[in-house]
Amino acid sequence: MTRELELNCLVLDSHASINRIFTVQILETDNVATLKEKIKEKKHTAFQHIDADALDLWNVSISIGDLSETHLHDLQPARAPLLPVKRLGRLYLDAPPEEHLHIIAKPPHIAASPDPQSLLELNCLTETVGSLKEAVKGKKHPLFNHVAADNLILWRVSEVVDQNFEKNLENANFREKESLSPVDKLSKIFPNLPVEGCLHIVVWCPEDENPEHGEQRDAI
């Protein structure tokens, strides 16, 4: 008798979260191409402008309890994605273990037309660190009125904003690392979309620029 498989799936995109894992029921005689179609049906709103065959799939076996929200984007296997003609019964000779992640799906990168809310982010990605300094000075004008924008020092970081944020930031020792060059393109510094829920940029105002208040630090 043909088995029905229950596969727990996760779409690896900017909204990836353990709470977004979903289940697909599919026959063992179906192939990966059919699984792509079922994933597209399940996520029809997110994938309405994406063809099912454009999805890349990988089979994994990871206990849900071992997953970490901050490391979800490290889950993509280094191996090639599954071939569309591969039969699922060949991948799962035994029943997929319960409470495990079984399939990782990754959509293609789609360049969307900017809407007013995302226009600033799109413009930033085409600008340089020097332009970002100007934007930071403008955003924090009461604090940085005394300092020229090009004297601000910027570092790129990736710190999760949680209950340990301040402690982790203090221990990061970012000032010992090389600061961002004003001519660097932001698209080079952030080749992928910045991870949500994380600190991305630390801004430092040198002490000699603010003799009354000492050093000033801010974060983006």
Walk me through this protein's architecture.
It contains six helices and seven strands; from the N terminus they run ββαβαβααβααββ. The chain has helices at 32-42, 88-91, 119-125, 129-139, 165-171, 186-189; strands at residues 4-11, 22-27, 56-63, 100-106, 153-160, 198-205, 216-219. The protein folds into two domains: 4-106, Ubiquitin-like (UB roll); 129-204, no CATH class. The protein is an alpha+beta fold and 220 residues long. The protein is elongated and about 75 Å long. The strands form two sheets. A four-stranded mixed β-sheet has the order 2-1-4-3. Strands 5-6-7 form a three-stranded antiparallel β-sheet, with helices on both faces. It is found in: Host cell; Secreted. Keywords: Secreted. This is Crinkler effector protein N-terminal domain-containing protein.
The fraction of residues in strands falls at 15-25%
Name the poorly predicted regions.
110-124, 208-215
CATH class of the largest domain: Alpha Beta
For CATH, the homologous superfamily of the largest domain is named as Phosphatidylinositol 3-kinase Catalytic Subunit, Chain A, domain 1
Assign the CATH architecture of the largest domain.
Roll
Q: Helical segment tally?
A: 6
- Specify Rg, calculated over alpha carbons: 23 Å
Largest sheet: 4 strands, mixed
What's the shape? elongated
Measured as a percent range, the helix fraction is 10-25%
Number of strands: 7
